[in-house]
Amino acid sequence: MTIAVTGATGFVGQTLLERARGQVAVRALTRREQQGRGGVEWIAGDLADAQALRELVRGTEAVIHVAGVVNAPDPQEFERGNVLGTLALIEAAKAEGVQRFVFVSSLSAREPELSAYGASKARAEKLVMASGLDWTVVRPPWIFGPGDRDTLDMFKAARWGLMPMPPREGRSSLLHVDDLARLLLALVPGGEGVSQQLFEPDDGRTGGWSHYEVARAIGWAMGRRPWVVHLSRASLERAARADRFLRRDKAKLTLDRAGYMAHPDWVVSQGARPSAALWEPLVPTREGLKATAKWYRDAGWL
After folding, report:
1. What CATH class has 2-148+173-206+267-281?
2. pLDDT in tens, 228-259
3. Is the whole model's pTM more than 0.90, yes or no?
4. Where are the extended beta strands (E) located within the chain?
5. CA-CA distance, 138 to 16, in Å (whole number)?
6. How many CB atoms lie within 10 A of CB 266?
7. Does position 105 have pLDDT exceeding 70, yes or no?
8. Residue extents of the structural domains in the chain
């Protein structure tokens, strides 16, 4: 079997390629020249390149659409990358007769009014569901693991012993990137109970994690007991403006992110979890965080 993958050079995509090795052949989209990799055929192009997308999906049995814009100073970038990019890929799949389409969305799509990112993912979901393809949508919660740059700042903060976090009353589900990659591959065949379904996977912790618990777990992974400071939405927005001033377009805490970070409930819906017969998480979150901290150190990121 050969599958087409977008976002293969990113955090989730790289883990997916490792998981796919020896299981399926992969044709992967890339904007930059890549080194040779066993079982992977690189296709030069991006989501705005219709010809490259046709080449990407041609002759494959399924598409796993991971690529997306997760952080941008201009909300229109979410529209171009997440909505129009998804539409272009759907059109390429239909043109080449590829029916199976697995779309990696986001839990933020559940509350599209909170952020431009979440709204763009919600619109992309609607396109996938109306496509006529054999689709499955996956809404991951907070993803962490080796290679994750988004959570890196929290590990750095824990190292210094002070962790600013969203409001105390908030809760989130977590999921290790390797568990997500396993799920995406398990979804490729489709079939009853999988096709035309929306899933919200997590680490199996009922009720998710409070922000305080997440901070302490990261602190434990770093061998520290950090002081946890909970920030209000107004404080998060002030911090976002400061980050924008200091890091310009490279700012990680944007006003858009502050909007959904302040929301109190990012716990997966119980009825939306994948069935145990299909998939179960294998990486305990605390141990996964500890391994991630080690990876950061070994990679020189900490």
Report:
1. alpha beta
2. 999 887 887 787 777 766 777 676 677 777 77
3. yes
4. 2-6, 25-30, 40-44, 62-65, 100-104, 134-138, 142-144, 162-165, 171-172, 174-176, 197-199, 209-210, 227-230, 265-266
5. 14
6. 23
7. yes
8. 2-148+173-206+267-281
